[in-house]
Amino acid sequence: MKKFSKEFMLGAATAAHQVEGNNIHSDYWVQEQIPHSSFDEPSLDAVDHYNRYEEDIRLLAGAGLNTYRFSIEWARIQPEPDAWEREEVEHYRKVIRCCKENGVTPIVTMHHFTSPKWLITQGGWENPEVVTKFQTYCKRLVEEIGDELEYVCTINEANMRLQLAALIKDMMKRMMGGNVGSQAAQSDVQVGINMMPENIKLGMIEAAQAFGIEDPTKIHTFVSQCTPKGDILVMRAHEAARDAMKKACPHLKIGLTLSLHDMQPLEGGEAHAKKEWEEEFLHYLPFIKDDDFLGVQCYSRKLFDSNGVVQPAESAPRTQMGYEDYPLGIANVVRKVAEEFKGALIVTENGIATDNDARRCEFIREAIEGIQACIDDGIPLKGYMYWTLLDNFEWQKGYSMTFGLIAVDRTTQTRYPKDSLQVLGSFAPK
Questions:
Q1: CATH code, domain with 415
Q2: Pairing label, strands 105-111, 67-71
């Protein structure tokens, strides 16, 4: 088995809301608590990573991994527009220091899907003021803890909003044609969502009331469909935050992450595949050309014929999320991205939702083999983060999706490392 070099960042990733628990000031918490929620279940205590991060980081390091990507929860730092919770800032400083004490490089994400409730009440991610609000938050935070960091992701999957807008448009077309096809369609977006929940209208009304918004169609969370203007606002927020953090801490390496698919055309599908790659990746190049790195995230592939997207064959293996189980996708995407983006690359997410850990072990081996071939071919790939460290709250899908390298009994919050944790760690240099 070939091992990575000592400089290669090999690790796992989490997101604050999915693992910490009791993120009571966030927009997701609001949406989980309403009577007709689109969430299968609320996050509640999650897997209590907020209190158990030391144990989790030690497990990661003990397996030989040297990097941990995690997010800082904006809603904890600023539960109200004019608040600044120094105790919460110090909490995240302790997480960062815990990483370093265990020989682990922290990669911090400033925004991973969740936003403070107040931000949504003020117009959310369609309000141009979000650019300044996000910039101000990021700048102040790195002024306080930036000396502890090296790598920062501004926004996780900055293209997710446009992906959702396209998905919802496609869903409407299917409905008008009498073919909803919700499972097939929603598996095209790499996040746990429920496209056609029961009582959706009641849920929207309740959410609007909870956010203090009169029109339910004006709820603009990060993980909701957006206008073309809203898509650009995300990128402007990224640029503004990046530049402000660089000014405050010039040593930081800053980028964002994108949700990407391995676009594979069948005969006649070349134009469709090219168009989707333009919308999913090339569209964003002008906004990331000055970044220090790009976080690449991929879970599966998309097939295209002359009519557009083709669903995998019935016999094709699928993950719990409905994606095709296709571990080669990440290496293919890295190669494709490297043709246009000439900076450093980090795989910030790649993994599989399955209750079969033996399959997870094989998935990791196959994905890593592809990643190592990319490096051998001279692609400037600096790291690989498996998603995810812990079985956790997969957004609207709740706790039923198991991506983790570590299982958690949520009645006791006891951790049970899986064989896959050791398999990933086995690629680290000893």
A1: 3.20.20.80
A2: parallel
- DSSP secondary structure letters along 246-284: HHH-TT-EEEEEEE--EEEE-TT-HHHHHHHHHHHTGGG
Answer whether residue 363 is part of any domain: yes
In percent, how much of the chain has pLDDT > 90? 89
6 near 341, Cβ under 8 Å?
no
Between CA 262 and CA 241 the distance in angstroms is: 29
Q: Is the pLDDT of residue 193 over 90?
A: no
Residue 288 lies in a domain: yes
In a 10 Å sphere around its CB, with 0-12 CB exposed, 13-18 middle and 19+ buried, how is residue 178 labelled? exposed
Annotate 129-141 with b (16+ C-beta within 10 A) or e (fewer). ebbebbbebbbeb
Structural domain of 339: 9-425
- Residue 267 amino acid letter: E
3-class state of residue 16 by DSSP: helix
The whole-angstrom separation of Cα 324 and Cα 313 is 9
Q: How many helices (H) and strands (E) does the chain have?
A: 16, 13
CA distances (Å), origin 102, targets 55, 163, 186, 246: 11, 37, 39, 27
| Contact present, 114 and 21 (Cβ < 8 Å) | no
Torsion angles phi and psi, residue 257, rounded to 5: -120, 150
CB contact at 8 A, 379 and 333: no
Residue pLDDT, tens place only, 235-251 = 999 999 999 999 999 99
Instruction: Yes or no: say if 337 and 380 are a contact pair by the CB < 8 Å rule.
Output: no
Task: Give how many domains the chain has, as a whole number.
Answer: 1
CA distances from 267 to 69, 188, 305, 323 (A): 39, 21, 6, 22
Q: How many CA atoms lie within 13 A of 244 on its CB side?
A: 20
- Please report whether residue 1 resides in a domain: no
Tell me, what DSSP letter sits at residue 35?
T
Nearest of 44, 144, 21 to residue 84 by alpha carbon = 144
**Cα–Cα distance, 181 to 167 (Å, whole number):** 11
> Tens of pLDDT along 94-115?
999 999 999 999 999 999 999 9
The reply to whether 22 falls in a domain is yes
